[in-house]
């Protein structure tokens, strides 16, 4: 989408600190970290909500979760991490492009 921040980052139209990218998704540092380590995994497919994703896109979310687990040491998340997806207004979603927050690097506050 033309006015989507994450699509712009993917296309290189906005700067970011990219830690990983392949044909399906990228991992960048969040610009406003809510934990010592705060990354966001962003599928290339633009969809605001999970129910708007293609089946392939939804399956990719599982692959991303697996990849994060396999690379947790490299990402500095050896002691654990929290994954979070905000969906809609009540959850406080601010960017209308599906993304998974990855939080860690310290003892996180309990919900
Ligand atoms: P949401 O609130 O939609 O779940 O999360 C959006 C996240 O994207 C927020 O944590 C926010 O800090 C992050 N964010 C928004 N704009 C940018 C940007 O231009 N660059 C980066 N790296 N992160 C962004
Ligand atoms: Zn987008």
The tally of beta strands, per DSSP, is 5
CATH topology: HIT family, subunit A
Helix and strand pattern: HEEEHEE
Strand content: 15-25%
| N- and C-termini, Cα separation | 33 Å
**CATH superfamily label:** HIT-like
Question: What is shown here, in short?
Answer:
By secondary structure, this protein is α+β, with helices and mostly antiparallel strands. It has helices at residues 5-10, 55-70, and strands at residues 18-21, 25-29, 37-43, 81-84, 100-104. It is globular.
Explain what this protein looks like in three dimensions.
The chain has helices spanning 5-10, 55-70, and strands at 18-21, 25-29, 37-43, 81-84, 100-104. It has 2 helices and 5 strands, in the order H-E-E-E-H-E-E. It is 20% helix and 23% strand. The protein has a 5-stranded antiparallel sheet with strand order 1-2-3-5-4, with helices on one face. With 111 residues, the protein is of the alpha+beta class. The model has no long low-confidence stretch (mean pLDDT 96). The chain has a single domain, classed as 2-Layer Sandwich (HIT family, subunit A). The chain is globular. Bound molecules: guanosine-5'-monophosphate and zinc ion. Guanosine-5'-monophosphate binds at residues 5, 14, 16, 28-32, 40, 86, 92-95.
Features:
alpha+beta, HIT family, subunit A, 5 strands, binds guanosine-5'-monophosphate, binds zinc ion, 111 residues, 5-stranded antiparallel beta sheet
Write the layout of secondary structure elements.
Elements (H helix, E strand, L loop, with lengths): L4 H6 L7 E4 L3 E5 L7 E7 L11 H16 L10 E4 L15 E5 L7
Antiparallel strand pairs: 1-2, 2-3, 3-5, 4-5
The chain binds guanosine-5'-monophosphate and zinc ion.
Zinc ion binds next to helix 1.
